[in-house]
Amino acid sequence: MSVGRYPNWVPGIELREEWLAQVQEEIIDPYREIVDPHHHLWHHGDAVYELDALAADTGSGHNIVQTVYIECRSYYDHTAPDHLKPVGETAQVARLAATIPPGRARIAGIVAHADLRRDDLDTVLDAHVAAGQGLLVGIRHAGAHDPDPEALMIPGRGAPVLYADPAFRRGVARLGDRGLTYDTWHYHHQADAFLALARAVPDTTLVLDHFGTPLGVGRFKGRRDEIFPTWKRDMAKLAECPNVVAKLGGFAMPDNGWDWDKGTLPPSSDQLVDQQGAWYRHMIACFGPERCMFESNFPVDRVSIAYPILWNGFKKIAANYGGDAQDRLFAGTARAVYGI
Known about the structure:
This is Amidohydrolase family protein. The chain is an alpha/beta fold. The protein has a single domain (about 30-340), classed as Alpha-Beta Barrel (TIM Barrel), CATH 3.20.20. The protein has ten helices and ten strands. The strands form two sheets. It has an eight-stranded parallel β-sheet with strand order 1-4-5-6-7-8-9-10. It has a two-stranded antiparallel sheet with strand order 2-3. The longest helix is centred in the C-terminal third of the chain and has 19 residues, at about 270-285. About 50% of the residues are buried.
């Protein structure tokens, strides 16, 4: 199995272009406009996934017209104080976005990182706004924490009780005051804590990334049939909070336990639908298309599935819904939530 141009962007992960190229499919509904509301640019040492790599994926057949960049600790300004180092990421992504030529998917929004617990949060947010050149739409201070991080390929860095921290809740509420969204990433066993947060900050739009990351490794390996009904109940309760919207994707990470990255061949879109379709359909049933948006989570999910195959799978899932619902799932919800 050959290694692609962007190897080892996270220890233990390789992005395998030739492996992914073994499965090819005709693009479904190639003219449908798509906003990809969750991707990264990766620049850590020799591991690089930047604009050319993103353009190759977004230009691989589907009509991706806009994207939203999500913080991933790239491009930090290590000359700045710790709380302002992430502003370097916002500034560099804004600079890169300005160089994208016509005809390519445009980075239309940036979700940056800030420590929402700080007393001087407004000063940090002001710095991000200035650095973003009109592109800042939200903040992600992820809550992902698991007591068994050695079992995870991409362990979260969240504090154990972050969502209950009064200072953190004040910070999330302040985002709503300023018209910014709060993106999060956490694991399925943190659902109750996130529900309590959502109820505590009703005036802030909370964006749930990656289905709440149902884990399938470590102590959760082989327990998917047990986790699924509990997860369904958790998502139904969360959907009762009108300030929560859901991103549908980011479900092909190795820590989800599908083992697609270990196959001789990468998965097809039919395999995605067969194995994961029930999870997608449940989210759409609970939140409605007006509060759901498909996401790629690239290049993270690229370790397991190719970009055109992923979006073909989404289109097969969406085929069961009407035209207006599809418009929302592929673009409308993302544009409304992020104001792009």
